[in-house]
């Protein structure tokens, strides 16, 4: 089945530093990937939609200069949390859909295992 | 606004008992419907989905869900709970937006008592 690899699974960083999270589709190509943030005991909140070869689309209230997204290839999207602060500590999850499979438009999203970010 | 409602943030059942997790969506146009399961500190895994066709959908791990248009519901059930079913369950809908994004419910945590 389709696999999305997200790395790292856990990261601890100091306030003011930047952290990069990678999301890779291992056996399929994805023109679109999604980045979510999950607060404790809450649902996933979509942060942005990452588009291969173009700018990401950010949801209302998400700072695009703080959460930099790069979708350089059909199998890789990265999320960089710049100048991290303790309030950025959260669980970040990416997802992707096989862009070229049969009936791909409404095929399920495949999720990475998430990244637990702790900013001290 | 389009939304997904999961009734009950926490459901507790005994091992072997029926599992029923409720999900209602708000739309006059039937969306595409999904149930995902999340284990601690992991991403989401697809349990089952409804797009078109048969309204009773069977998924992995013995779960199934029935799409009821008249009730705008897509409740998840399993006849007999297992300890390994303890997890967070999310109902999600795709209203067919330009990029097919999912809208998630707030999740229901399922606890299974021995």
Please explain how this structure is put together:
The complex is a heterodimer of chains A (120) and B (114). In chain A, 0% of the residues lie in helices and 49% in strands. With 120 residues, chain A is mainly beta. In chain A, strands 2, 4, 5, 6, 9, 10 and 11 form a seven-stranded mixed β-sheet that branches. Chain B has no helices and twelve strands. In chain B, strand 8 and strand 9 form a beta hairpin. The N and C termini of chain B lie far apart (41 Å). Chains A and B meet through strand 5, strand 9 and strand 10 of A and strand 5 and strand 6 of B.
What are the low-pLDDT stretches of chain B, counting only 5+ consecutive residues below 50? none
Task: Return Rg of chain B in Å.
Answer: 14 Å
Quickly count the helices of chain A: 0
Question: Strand content of the residues of chain B, in percent?
Answer: over 45%
Order of helices and strands of chain A: EEEEEEEEEEE
How many DSSP E strands of chain B? 12
The largest sheet of chain A is:
7 strands, mixed
Task: Please identify the oligomeric state.
Answer: heterodimer
Largest interface: A-B, 26 and 24 residues
Rg value of chain A:
14 Å
Query: Overall pLDDT of chain B, averaged?
Result: 88
Determine the strand fraction of chain A and express it as a percent band: over 45%
SS-based class of chain A: mainly beta
Question: What class do helices, strands and sheet pairing of chain B give?
Answer: mainly beta
Low-pLDDT stretches of chain A are none
- What is the arithmetic mean of pLDDT of chain A? 88
SSE string of chain B, helices as H and strands as E: EEEEEEEEEEEE
* Continuous helix count of chain B: 0
């Amino acid at each position: 089945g389709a696999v999305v690899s997200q790395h790292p699974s856990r990261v601890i960083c100091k306030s003011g530093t930047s952290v990069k999270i990678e999301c890779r589709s291992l056996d399929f190509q994805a023109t679109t990937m999604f980045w979510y943030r999950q607060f404790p005991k809450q649902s996933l909140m979509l942060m942005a939609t990452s588009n291969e070869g173009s700018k990401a689309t950010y949801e209302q209230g998400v700072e695009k200069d703080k959460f930099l997204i790069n979708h350089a290839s059909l199998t890789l999207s990265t999320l960089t949390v710049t100048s991290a602060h303790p309030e950025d500590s959260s669980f970040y999850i990416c997802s992707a859909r096989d862009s070229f499979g049969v009936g791909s438009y409404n095929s399920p999203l495949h999720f990475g295992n998430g990244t637990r970010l702790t900013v001290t | 606004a389009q939304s997904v409602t999961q009734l009950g943030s926490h459901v507790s059942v005994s091992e072997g008992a029926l599992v029923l997790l409720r999900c209602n969506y708000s739309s006059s146009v039937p969306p595409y419907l999904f149930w995902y399961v999340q284990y601690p500190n992991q991403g989401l895994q697809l349990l089952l989905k409804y797009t078109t066709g048969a309204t009773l959908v069977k998924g992995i791990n013995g779960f199934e869900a029935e799409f009821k248009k008249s009730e705008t519901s897509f409740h998840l059930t399993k006849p007999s709970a297992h300890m390994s079913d303890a997890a967070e369950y999310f109902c999600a809908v795709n209203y067919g937006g330009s990029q097919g994004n999912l809208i998630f419910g707030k999740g229901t945590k399922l606890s299974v008592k021995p």
